[in-house]
Amino acid sequence: TDQKLIRNFAIIAHIDHGKSTLADRIIQLCEGVSEREMREQFLDNMDLERERGITIKAQTVRLNYRAPDGTEYTLNLIDTPGHVDFSYEVSRSLKACEGCLLLVDASQGVEAQTLANVYLALDHDLEIIPVLNKVDLPAAEPERVMEEIENVIGLDATDALMISAKTGQGVGDVLEAIVKRVPAPKGDPKAPLQALLVDSWYDQYLGVVTLTRVFDGTLKPGTRARMLGTRALHDVSEVGTFNPRRTKAKQLGPGELGYLIAGIKDIDETQVGDTITDEANPCAKPLEGYKPSVPVVFCGLFPADAGDYEDLRDALGKLRLNDSSFQFEPESSPALGFGFRCGFLGLLHLEIIQERLEREYDLDLITTAPSVVYRVMQRNGEVLELHNPTDLPDPVHIEAIEEPWIKATVMVPDQFLGNVLKLCEERRGRQVDLTYAGDRAMVVYNLPLNEVVYDFYDRLKSVTSGYASFDYHMEGYHEGDLVKLDILVNGEKVDAMALIVHRSQAEPRGRSVCQRLKDLIPRQLFKVAVQAAIGGKVVARETVPAMRKDVTAKCYGGDITRKRKLLEKQKAGKKKMRQFGKVEIPQSAFLAALKME
Ligand code: GDP
Ligand code: MG
């Protein structure tokens, strides 16, 4: 491939502004797939992504584009996820590009993640092409949105393109803008190999597949590939590209984006952001990698059936290969047995991993209360990084507890501003800034992450009728008046439900958990007390009334098959229950009880 004719670009946008739809149109225009193969959101190939309509993993596709002047270009398109939990994936996609399309929904305008993504693109020195999408909508206001791009983002919008990814209007101009405005990749094919490990995943048939961007040199079958970070060494057996089908190639040169297969078995040997070089002629120094992604939310995952522990471990290992941003380590709990403590980038990330484990690996799981990482300053001078509320030392040994704070940016139409301020204040927020762009406000708050992980995003959507957008990054650790809230069922502590909360919120929080649990715990033959307590002091209490009569009684002496069916159903249901003393708690209750009203 002629290096001068390669263009590597990503599409960045706020969620739902039309990235995946535009990617589909571009693929179609370049005839990357036949009409028959084309289906909506072609690049979102995980079932879960299709169902949720969001892009989780960045995907790439190589396309041939014949420009009106007859020149044949090679375009590498990288689709990126838009949700705040996955900005890490965006950052790694951008590292492999020279330019990006900044897509803004012309009926919505600049949103919080539009901004966040622009900052990432500027960090990577990319050529940014502003594109207004959805101009087919009657509600589109391209002039207003152009002003926002200039005023809020500070980008020149005079050359912004007006398109409809849905109808295809203007998409040809997008391709022309890419080849004219995005620079060709630099790099020397004769220099020692220097390639970036962009992504890696586990394929059932091929083993570990690694996506790389070559900067210098050439990568080909037979290359002794050395990973500079992990020091792993493997003979490359195959290289190629995704067009979008996997297609073998003779070699990958500078500026090219493609995969390599090298019989790698160990998932930990391919770390995203690592530099790949040729052992026979190594490059002098590694590429600047990625900032490692740091999980900010932790929770325990336990198999509902203890016999599934090994299966769960295997599944977590495989998922981790496809998603290096999540972590896990073994943990055990008196109530839940053996499981894993897992770290995630956010709550959506947690839900997605949990759902994939249940769906793709057919595992029944119990998820414990998500928690952020606290720093516990102990009287003996040691600092404990607390990932699990149950590990909190006795208060007499504690000097202070620090909790992580975030800096959150919310963009919202003026009429909902009051609701947003109220929500942020309720969550112990401290206002940093408030500015306007037209009739939309941009509010910046410092907030304890602890107050955000459970349901802040859902609440924000509901108090603004879905009009607010939200983005955040870590700000730092600050001391807080924090206490451990224990949940007791029938007088027994349920360790998996322990929470760390701000003292001022212990009582309302405890009440809310108890009320929910009361409805989630099935009635027993006896009354069951549900309590929330700090130390030994009960701060909230509810009672699950006793069952009135035996529900199976009517089966006795009756239809035998019906009775057997009922028993089988009960047996299946049992697997999803956990025994606490004399009480069984359904698996679904663990996470459900923690949602706030
Ligand atoms: P992403 O989250 O940025 O990948 O957004 P999607 O591509 O999934 O699009 C979000 C929604 O907007 C989908 O329902 C699309 O059909 C719709 N959409 C995308 N582009 C257009 C457009 O140009 N016009 C209209 N009317 N709808 C669009
Ligand atoms: Mg998408």
From TrEMBL:
Q: Which GO terms describe its cellular component?
A: plasma membrane
What's the main place this protein lives? membrane
Q: What is the lineage of its organism?
A: Bacteria, Pseudomonadati, Pseudomonadota, Alphaproteobacteria, Rhodospirillales
Q: Which residues bind GTP?
A: 16-21, 133-136
Kindly list the GO molecular function terms attached to this UniProt entry. GTP binding; GTPase activity; guanosine tetraphosphate binding; ribosome binding; translation elongation factor activity
The text of the family note is: Belongs to the GTP-binding elongation factor family. LepA subfamily. Belongs to the TRAFAC class translation factor GTPase superfamily. Classic translation factor GTPase family. LepA subfamily.
Alphabetized CDD domains for the sequence: EF4_II (cd03699), EF4_III (cd16260), LepA (cd01890), lepA_C (cd03709)
Kindly give the InterPro entries that the UniProt entry links to this protein: EF-4, EFG_III/V, EFG_V-like, EFTu-like_2, G_TR_CS, LepA_C_sf, LepA_CTD, LepA_IV
One biological process term in Gene Ontology: positive regulation of translation
**Keyword Hydrolase on entry:** yes
The Tr-type G domain is annotated at 4-186
State the encoding gene: lepA
Write down the chemical reaction(s) this protein catalyses.
Answer: GTP + H2O = GDP + phosphate + H(+)
PROSITE patterns linked: G_TR_1, G_TR_2
Q: What is its EC number?
A: 3.6.5.n1
What is the official name of this protein in its record?
Elongation factor 4
Q: Keywords on this record? A: Cell membrane, Elongation factor, GTP-binding, Hydrolase, Membrane, Nucleotide-binding, Protein biosynthesis
Species whose genome carries this gene: Ferruginivarius sediminum
